[in-house]
Design brief:
There is one protein chain. By secondary structure, the protein is mainly alpha-helical. It folds into three domains: 2-39; 48-81 and 119-184, no CATH class; 84-117, no CATH class. Helix content is 54%, strand content 0%. It is built from ten helices and no strands. It has helices at 2-39, 41-45, 57-63, 68-71, 86-93, 101-112, 132-137, 142-146, 163-173, 179-182. The protein is flat and about 80 Å long. Bound molecules: heme C (5 copies).
């Protein structure tokens, strides 16, 4: 009787020990995961700077379905997609939310003749040449290279423009892959 009791106590403490070990191992990997999340390039790819005016793509391109190229109208005709000038914002905001403090900032920028200083999100190194026009003409979707921008409150670098990313599609679509295509 007593032996049986002891045996069950022993196995109980053994279970408790295994449980504790499992919890400790779990906690260790959880912490490791956190460290990895913060220092790994995964978090770097989501670089999303705070902008001078909290412009939301989710609100404009998502909920209000304003086409990307209404604002980024250079994309189909030049190398850069460009960011719309404050005047374009006022096409709508002369009447929509014209008293909002953020919109008053836009109006003030026009009055002072100073462009809004948007912080660039996607930057390629100087030795890389890229052109929007060629890709838009071939119907490559904006989202392929920039992610689901229409769901973003703040634009972040959701896609990493590594050389392999460019080359994979070039190979697949039979686009040029010689070095001088992209390096000048
Ligand atoms: C094939 C990939 C690709 C596609 C497709 C693409 N972009 Fe880009 N985009 C880039 C790269 C690369 C840069 C960075 C260019 C640089 O640093 O000069 C960029 C930069 C930008 C910028 C920053 C301003 C500029 O022109 O440098 C905006 C805005 C932009 N893209 C919007 C768009 C929109 C809107 C579309 C769809 C109509 C689009 N892009 C389609 C790759 C792409
Ligand atoms: C085609 C029309 C259109 C254009 C162009 C446009 N917006 Fe808007 N914007 C809207 C609509 C619609 C809303 C939502 C208004 C609402 O919530 O009632 C909005 C809301 C906003 C808000 C939130 C205002 C608040 O206080 O709630 C800001 C900030 C804003 N826009 C900034 C801009 C900026 C900056 C530009 C230019 C880069 C711009 N918008 C261009 C249609 C537009
Ligand atoms: C109402 C105008 C408007 C519309 C519509 C719009 N954008 Fe933008 N976009 C802006 C403004 C203003 C900025 C600069 C501020 C910022 O980064 O949020 C910008 C920035 C960007 C950037 C980052 C540029 C950089 O600095 O590298 C990308 C990428 C982009 N837009 C893609 C898109 C795509 C894709 C769509 C359609 C799904 C779209 N935009 C629709 C106004 C617009
Ligand atoms: C999803 C597919 C896709 C991705 C991703 C892509 N490209 Fe392209 N690219 C193409 C296609 C297709 C063409 C051919 C266009 C044509 O024939 O006019 C092209 C053409 C080009 C050209 C023009 C070549 C010429 O002869 O003028 C350059 C430069 C270029 N791409 C650079 C890049 C860079 C840099 C990246 C990465 C940031 C990239 N591309 C990512 C599909 C892609
Ligand atoms: C379709 C476009 C494209 C082609 C073709 C291409 N590259 Fe690149 N390359 C890039 C991009 C984009 C980067 C920048 C990557 C980054 O910033 O992470 C890059 C970066 C590099 C770098 C810097 C190191 C690095 O990895 O960032 C070297 C070196 C390089 N390329 C060599 C070459 C050589 C050699 C060829 C020909 C065999 C070539 N590239 C063809 C797009 C291209």
């Amino acid at each position: 009787m007593r032996d049986k009791f002891r045996a069950s106590r022993q196995s109980l403490s053994q279970t408790a020990f295994i449980g504790l070990m499992a919890a400790a191992i779990g906690a260790f990997f959880f912490l490791l995961g956190l460290v990895y999340f913060y220092v790994s390039p995964i978090s770097l790819t989501m670089y999303s700077p705070k902008q001078p005016i909290p412009f939301s793509h989710k609100l404009h391109a998502g909920e209000n379905k304003i086409p990307c190229q209404y604002c980024h109208s250079d994309a189909r005709r030049s190398e850069s997609a460009g960011v719309p000038g404050a005047q374009k914002c006022m096409n709508c905001h002369n009447t929509i939310k014209s008293e909002s403090p953020e919109i008053l900032k836009v109006a003030a920028a026009i009055e002072k003749g100073k462009p809004i200083e948007w912080i660039k999100v996607f930057v390629t190194p100087d030795h890389v040449w890229f052109s929007h026009k060629r890709h838009i003409k071939k119907d490559v979707a904006c989202q392929t290279c920039h992610g689901k921008v229409e769901t973003m409150e703040v634009v972040g670098r959701a896609v990493d423009h590594k050389m392999g990313f460019c080359l994979d599609c070039h190979r697949e679509k039979g686009a040029p892959t010689d070095c001088w295509t992209c390096h000048t």
